[in-house]
Structure formats: C-alpha cells, structure tokens
Amino acid sequence: MPDTLQTFCDPDFAKQFARQRPLRHIDLFDLRLVADTTDAAIATLMAPGRHRVHFVNAHCINTMARDAGYRRALATADMILPDGAGIELAARLCGKAIPENLNGTDFVPNLLRAAAASGHSVFLFGGRPGTAEAAADTLTGLAPGLRIAGTLNGYADATDPEQVIAQVNASGADILLVALGVPMQDTWIAAHADRLVPRICLGVGACFDFLAGTVARAPVALRRARLEWAWRLLQEPRRMAGRYLLGNPIFVARALRHAANGTDRVALLRRLMDLGLSGAALILLGPVLLTIALAIAATSRGPVLFRQTRVGKDGTPFTVFKFRSMHVDAEARRTALLATSDRAGICFKSRNDPRVTRVGRLLRRFSLDELPQILNVLRGDMAIVGPRPALPAEVAAYPARALGRLSIKPGLTGIWQVSGRAEIGFDKMIDMDLAYARSRSLLLDLILIALTFRAVISGRGAY
C-alpha cells in the first residue's frame, strides 16, 4: 500500500512504480486478462523472460467460442491485453474494472519506444506485400533509434512456416510482431513459440495496416467515444458487416450470459441497478447538468469539470469527476488550510473554505457538484451506494482497520452521506463504512438511495 500511495500522490513515479509491482489481472471469459496500465504491461514485457502476447476484443471472444485451436492459444498465453469497448463492457457487467484500453495500434508503438531505448530490435511478419515495410518505416519515426531486424509479408512469404521461422531466428530480433489476422496469427504464434528466438511475440491484427496508412484509423473523438468499430464498418461495410452488425449483439448476449453464470447474482443485480439508475439519471438530468456547466463557466475561470485521483476498491486509483466548486488554485492552497478543518480526523473539511466559489457553495449545499460521478458509476469505478471515495493522502494516513472500507467500491451515496456527512467524525465514518461492507444488501442500498433525497434537501453536513 505505501508504494502504491506514493505513486498516487506523485504521477512522476508512475513508470518507476509499474516496474516494481506485479501486473494486475482479471478473469473474464475463462481468460486471464491484464487489468493495468500501458506502462505496467510494458515494464513486465521488458523485464527478463519470454512472453507470448495476444490482444482480445469482442470479435476475438466470438471467434474463440467456435474455434478450439484459437481458444487453446489464448488459454496458454503469457499475456492477454484487453482491446475495445466490448471487453470493457463485459468486465463492468461482472463488477470488474479495466483501467486502460490496451489496443495493439496504440500499445505497439509505446512498446517499441521502450525497446528502442533498450537497444532491442523488432521483426514484422504479416500484411499484404509492402505493408510490413511501410509499417516499419512509420515505427522508426515513432520510436527513434528502433532497429528493424527484418520484414515478411503474410502472403507469398508466409507459405512455408519453416522458412519464416528460420528467417526470423537468423535476424536475431528480440521482438516479433505477427499480423496474420485472428485467429491465424495467434494459433501460428502458439504453434511455433518454442522454436522462435524472439523472446516477445505479439499477434497484432490490423496494426500494420494502420501504421502503413493503408487503412485510415478513426478520428480521436470517435476512439474516445468507443466508436472505432463504427468507423471501420463505414470504411469496409462488406467485410465488417458480419463482425459488427451481427457479432456485436452476439457478443453482448455472450457477455450477459457470462456475467450471470460467473458472478454472484446479488453482485450482478447491484451492477445492473447501478447501470440502470445512473443511465436514467444522466438522461433525465441532462438539462440540469448543462445549466450547472454554463453557470460555472460564466462565473469563474477554469474548466467546468474537476478531475482528481481517488482510491477505489482494493486500493485501485481512478479519476473521479465533479463539477468544479473551487477556484483553480484550490489544490495548491489545501496544505495551508489543513489547520482550519472543522472535522475531526484525517479527512479535511472546512465550513468557510475560502477556495469555494459562489456557485460552488450552492452546488455543495445541494450536493450538485457530485452529479458528474454518474459517469464514474457508468464506468464501473464507483457504485450508486458505497463509502465516500478517499484521497490518496487520506488513505496513506489510514489506521489499519480503516483499510477495510476499500474492500468495496466507493459510492455516490452511503450511510455516511445520509447521516450528516461532514458533521460525522472520521472514526465514526469508518465504523459506518465497515458496518455497511459487512451487511450490505440490495434492500439496504434501496433504503439508502431513498434517504439520500432527504439528505440532499436538508443539506446537513454539506459544505
């Protein structure tokens, strides 16, 4: 915990920290998927050892269901990286979180930058004639100093596996990228991994096409909205129609069935309740959210949304969203105000905090500044009901018993939130959170949600 908290408090430690701790994973579709950052995954790959790496998306899971050889290849992989919104959705349905989309097109250049810095070389195998060479040229620009050990296409050059293996091994490459498409690339790597000299082998799908520019990648806005699949469908409707128009609904049904079979039913119901309530709230409160955003923008300098690192379930950091209720220099002024806290214990609260804006005081009075956390609930970082999400500095100062509140997801509301909020001292808050963690139920959650409306109207402890 102390190492993790040091990283939370100072982002400059992130890469160093990633090299010091084990890679985080989740189990999904009977596969062990990485649930960690790009830096952490690259740090693991660059450490000594051999690694067979595969990426999985919704299409891969559909393919795995009907291809036993591909299923074996994934099941025996050293590392499986989550790619796309479908895998993220399936994880959330199971109450799990994937902190970063580790798709091959973004991951490979980052990996090869690290490889270039370490003097490692790469071999590119796959794609149409000329594609691997064009991709290699792009990669040398993205990763200065990268050594290209060789290239082979996935057509005429790929007809004899023995020749491919011999040429790859003779090149002395440290990393092998294979772009033969799913499932061929993955079964090829699995079949020949023991005879290949490169210690890192990755199946990278359409990565060469994107790097070479033969297939245009979706605009950044669509990628952020998790709609890259729609862009590819528009570009190649004939080839992609089956994968997306038929495959996506099949995958969603498969993900729901997997969640129902593999997750505690109460946990699944709680997650579905979170999704339903937060989704409905986002739609119904749309005009309110827009009005608040305009009021903040019109009355004080700075962004409308405030983003801050908080500590979630099992000590996992996440970014919490709130409407900005303070001036932009609030974080810099926090230390100087700690002595003015009106609340006993670790968590700082000041009734007359000079950092709060005029609009911010109104937002805090009715807890409207918390509304953007609906997005955190939809993302799976938080639940509707749970403990207040803590700051890293607060968790760093926790006594041992207080760490028990990190055993469940933080929530928009909870026992502390409906019982007086800042008027409740730290020790009593911990008692409440631990009691909730021991006895939580759907009925208790519904009661706490109902009590939240009374707490918001009364404004008790809201400052």
Automatic annotation (TrEMBL):
GO terms for biological process: polysaccharide biosynthetic process. The chain crosses the membrane at residues 275-298. Pfam families: Bac_transf, Glyco_tran_WecG. The keyword Membrane applies. Its EC number is 2.7.8.6. Belongs to the bacterial sugar transferase family. One of its GO terms (molecular function) is undecaprenyl-phosphate galactose phosphotransferase activity. InterPro entries: Bact_transf, WecG_TagA_CpsF. Residues 270-457 form the Bacterial sugar transferase domain. This is Undecaprenyl-phosphate galactosephosphotransferase. Keywords: Exopolysaccharide synthesis, Membrane, Transferase, Transmembrane, Transmembrane helix.
